Structures are given as C-alpha cells and as structure tokens.
Amino acid sequence: AQSVSQHNHHVILSEAASLELGCNYSYGGTVNLFWYVQYPGQHLQLLLKYFSGDPLVKGIKGFEAEFIKSKFSFNLRKPSVQWSDTAEYFCAVTNTGGFKTIFGAGTRLFVKA
Amino acid sequence: DGGITQSPKYLFRKEGQNVTLSCEQNLNHDAMYWYRQDPGQGLRLIYYSQIVNDFQKGDIAEGYSVSREKKESFPLTVTSAQKNPTAFYLCASTQGGRGDTQYFGPGTRLTVL
Fold first, then answer.
1. Is B27 exposed, middle or buried (0-12, 13-18, 19+ CB in 10 A)?
2. DSSP per position, chain A
3. Cα–Cα nearest to A84, from A111, A44, A63, A62
4. Best interface-test mutation with A: which of B47, B101, B103, B109 has the largest number of A CBs within 10 A?
5. Interface touch B98/A98, C-beta < 8 Å
6. Contact criterion met (CB < 8 Å) for B31 and A99
7. What is the pLDDT of residues B10-58, one digit of tens each?
8. pLDDT tens-digit profile of B52-84?
C-alpha cells in the first residue's frame, strides 16, 4: 500500500537554526510530491511541489526540498528558520495522473524567538 | 476572491444524529475531496469526486456519504454509522485532479457529544 512517512512529529528550534524535515514514501510508479503547511489559524496551503525536472525545488518563504528518487525521499529544508515558520508541515504524494493524495502524519514545528 | 468555503466552523451533534458539512468552491475546479484530520495521523481521504454526479470512496469512507449535484458543491454527511465522528474535516479541490495542487477550505471541527 502507498504510504508517506514523516520522521519527526514534533520539532523545536531556535530562530536562525537550520531545518530539515524528513519525508519518505512508498510507491513504485511516477509520483508528484508536495509539502503543505498549516500555520496556526490558517488554511492548509501549498509550500512547494515537485512534478518533474530539477529535483531541487524552491517554495515560498525560503523553503526548498530535494527529491531523491533512489531513496524515495523528499526532504524539506530551510537554512534559517524564523518564529513565523511555526506551523504544521505535511508531506504528500500523488501518483502522476491519479486523483488520490497520500499525506504523511505531519510535523509540528515550533520556533522559539 | 476565489476559494473554498466550509460551514459551519464548529459543529456539535448528539450521538446517533446524522450531520451534513458544507463545502463550496468558486475556483471552477473539477475535482473535490473530503479529508479527515486527526492529531498524529495526517489527512485521510474520505471521498473524492472527479466530476459532477460522480464520486469515489477514499480510504475511510465507512459511515460517510457525499453527493456532487453541482460543480461548486460537495457536501459530506456524517452518519450515525460512523463510529468515531469527532474530528476536523477538510474539503479540498484541484483544477484538473490529476496530481495537481490541492486547495483547502478552512475546515469544520465536528464534536459529537
């Protein structure tokens, strides 16, 4: 069965620290990969996505993610976090051409000012 | 502004009652989705609809029903058969459906007393 695994459920960082959130998926076909973010009190929204091409994708607010096909991974990174990055982050996978998206369990990030 | 609206934001019902959650979009998107979000479990797909008058079960459809009579609307009914209905429910839509970015509504928090 398809699945998405996020390595950390809770992460606490100080401002200016670097961030890396792990995401691994299990699916044998071609996939589209996403990171969504849910800021406190706001809608779940797209942070970045990978469909094809350059495996290093950049998103909003200085986030980036790298697709490593051989490792079935799509880790999210940010060199220096801010207090405003406090949110819950979800990795998601859709098989290309499909309608079903599988979400990871989410990672709650708290950034201390 | 285009987007997805869900109402109500908070909903309380007595055990054994059916309840219908509203989801409306003005994005002219073809596909619509219902997810259930529980702490530590991410988003799980309940139902999705690719086009009007058609819908498919997701991973946790038992105890739920939907209809798609209009492109803009995709209401979800939580029936008394759903064993653990208290949760946060999210509606989403995609333009083409095929692996596209999902746009989410603000969610409805249902509490069954």
1. middle
2. --EEEES-SEEEEETT--EEE-EEEE-SS-EEEEEEEE-TTS-EEEEEEE-SS-SEEE-GGG-EEEEEGGGTEEEEEESS--GGG-EEEEEEEEETT-S-EEE---EEEEEE-
3. A111
4. B101
5. yes
6. yes
7. 999 998 899 999 999 999 999 999 999 998 888 999 999 999 999 999 9
8. 999 999 999 999 999 999 999 999 999 988 888
